[in-house]
Specification:
The complex is a heterodimer of chains A (about 300) and B (about 270). Chain A is an all-alpha fold and about 300 residues long. Chain A has one domain: ABC transporter involved in vitamin B12 uptake, BtuC (Orthogonal Bundle), CATH 1.10.3470.10. Chain A contains 15 helices and no strands. With about 270 residues, chain B is α/β, with parallel strands linked by helices. Chain B is about 25% helix and about 25% strand. The longest helix of chain B is centred in the middle third of the chain and has 18 residues. The termini of chain B are far apart. The chains are: A mainly alpha (about 300), B alpha/beta (about 270). Chains A and B meet through helix 4, helix 9, helix 10 and helix 13 of A and helix 2 and helix 4 of B.
Chain lengths: ~300, ~270
């Protein structure tokens, strides 16, 4: 372990920048060391892909960003008072998620509430970090992602969160989709639209708290939005969208960690770049599909639709 | 004879503001009831009462002989057309499926594919069942909406301004489809609208909610200058030309003027 680590640390100081970004010497030894990170990344890919599908459905991208800033504030507070960072970030996330869920039923209200909460959270976080006497690398990690391996205690916490979030989504799946896509008719059919939206915000808060541990508060969107956004570009199927979103998120998270292994920079740029590239490709595929008219309609029914069917 | 939807001395008020009161109405199976009235007269509120989302402040209401129950499968609901983002990952067939089991917990084991195909077929939407809803035209969307509402084989189809923002031709297509559906399934239709003319040929009875009271009866009896003048407390003239009804009054919000739609009548004071 020490040989591999010291090789990496030495590389950090003296090597040219490309060696600091991609360095696959001692790869086998390092792989064992980051087993925890890989498991954490895989869990996060699963959660991020699935949650992202509902985030897209409910147009909550901005809320994800807002929640992650308060999650950062919570984590920074935990660091300062010496509590586990995960506990702090979960607490911050949940407070933000429930506030947004309760106060922001309508989209316009929601966005202004997020806009109010976000700088407040970020400011608090900056304050707590400034007061924290510890190493600067820990502080930086909360915002932009970890470089060090994730220990097994933290992996266990993340596994528990994963079970709660995935289990919760599975239970709520159909009414949550109904309420998100078609709130008027869902209300008419007796679906508890408002309660579901708050329940989803709680699950979203947990997912964000998890993502903050790996990619940092500023880059949470790369795993909670980008993979699902890419998936909805290429498919509209209720089965393929979540499957593709999870696959894209897994490739980004696990792939990013594997690429970053020997490097001496945080793992988040690898994750964000992979998920971005997947999105770019998916967008091209989606555009091609839109030009063809998505599905071939029988000629008899292909009446030119007034006002519909135009896409940029 | 008992109806599928019955109101007895029904009244609804928000605080001091009385929307309507003393309505006695029995809608029979297979009947087409058109609900007319200016904005803020409580047309949509009437549907919310039927759906069990809002209690009456006086009188009683019965759906198939029982008090309204939230989530009842005896009611189908067709909302007004709204803009759906083309990127929303929901196909026409998914929307219809939500009408079958969207209110159930869990991810759902059955795709109900055959039933969804059958419903799409019944409204002529089969050719675009796999197209995302946001990429359909307004008229196509409303067809899919009707298929969705029919999924629970409702005894009453509640239509809440389904013609809003459709062009004239689509309006006629959609109303003709709702009429055909009623003929085929025997469902009653309660149709809330601003636009009288597209539904006039199919309407059995009109419920007109006016500021000065309400009137119930055949279109020819309710849509008269005398009857509407009484409801509005101001001179209204009803003109019939080429099978169409035009309602003319000095009050600018009598008809057709305002396309704004407020789902919550509590916010309609200013209209």
């Amino acid at each position: 372990m020490t040989a591999a680590l010291s090789a990496v640390l030495q590389a950090a100081a003296t090597d040219p920048w490309w060696n600091r970004m991609f360095n696959f010497s001692h790869y086998g030894e390092l792989l064992v060391l980051v087993r925890g990170s890989l498991i954490a990344g895989a869990l996060l890919g699963l959660v991020g892909g699935l949650v992202g599908v509902f985030v897209m459905q409910r147009d909550l991208a901005f809320a994800v960003h807002g929640v992650s800033e308060l999650s950062f504030a919570g984590a920074a507070a935990a660091l300062l008072i010496g509590v586990d960072v995960v506990v702090g970030s979960v607490a911050g996330s949940l407070v933000a998620a429930v506030l947004i869920g309760l106060l922001g039923a309508r989209a316009r209200d929601r966005n202004s509430i997020i806009g109010v909460l976000m700088p407040f959270g970020l400011g608090l976080g900056v304050l707590f970090l400034a007061l924290y006497p510890g190493r600067a690398a820990n502080k930086f990690g909360l915002l932009t992602g970890q470089i060090v391996s994730v220990d097994s205690a933290r992996v266990q916490v993340m596994a528990v969160i994963t079970v709660v979030v995935v289990g919760g989504l599975a239970l709520l799946w159909r009414p949550l989709t109904f309420a998100g896509v078609d709130p008027e008719v869902a209300t008419a059919r007796g679906v508890p639209v408002r309660a579901l939206s708050i329940a989803f915000m709680v699950l979203l808060g947990l997912a964000v708290a998890m993502a903050v541990q790996i990619v940092g508060a500023l880059l949470v969107l790369s795993l909670l939005i980008t993979p699902a956004a890419a998936a909805t570009r290429v498919s509209a199927s209720p089965i393929w969208v979540p499957v593709l979103a999870v696959v894209f998120a897994e490739v980004s998270a696990v792939g990013g960690i594997l690429l970053a292994l020997g490097a001496s920079v945080p793992i988040s740029p690898y994750i964000t770049t992979i998920s971005f590239l997947i999105y770019v490709v998916a967008r091209q595929v989606g555009n091609a599909r839109n030009r063809r008219g998505w599905v071939r309609r029988p000629a008899a029914a292909a009446v030119p639709a007034a006002g519909g069917g135009t896409l940029g | 004879m008992t109806g599928v939807f019955e109101l007895e001395h029904a009244g609804l008020a928000f605080g001091d503001r009385i929307l309507w009161s003393g309505i006695d109405l029995s809608v029979q199976a297979g009947e087409f009831l058109t609900v007319l009235g200016p904005n803020g007269s409580g047309k949509t509120t009437l549907l919310r009462v039927a759906l069990g989302l809002l209690p009456l402040t006086s009188g009683s209401v019965r759906v198939l002989g029982h008090p309204p129950r939230r989530g009842s499968r005896a009611l189908g609901y067709v909302p007004q057309q709204r803009i759906v983002d083309p990127a929303t990952p929901v196909r026409a067939r998914d929307l219809v499926r939500m009408g079958i089991d969207g209110d159930r917990w869990g991810p759902g084991r059955h795709s109900h594919r055959a039933r969804v195909d059958e419903l799409l077929e019944s409204v002529g939407a089969a050719p675009y069942g796999d197209v995302p809803v946001g990429m359909l035209s307004g008229g196509e969307q409303q067809r899919v909406r009707i298929a969705q509402a029919l999924a629970s084989e409702p005894a009453i189809l509640l239509c809440d301004e389904p013609l809003l923002s459709l062009d004239l031709r689509r309006q006629h297509e959609v109303t003709a489809l709702i009429h055909a559906t009623r003929e085929a399934t025997g469902t009653a239709v309660i149709f809330v609208t601003h636009e009288i003319n597209p539904v006039l040929p199919y309407t059995d009875r009109v419920l007109y909610l006016g500021p000065g009271g309400h009137a119930i009866g055949a279109p020819d009896d309710v849509l008269t200058s005398a009857a509407l003048t009484a409801l509005y407390d101001s001179p209204i003239e009803v003109v019939r030309a080429q099978g169409r009804v035009l309602i003319v009054g000095d009050d600018q919000h009598v008809h057709h003027a305002d396309d704004e739609h407020h789902p919550h009548p509590a916010h309609q004071e200013n209209s």
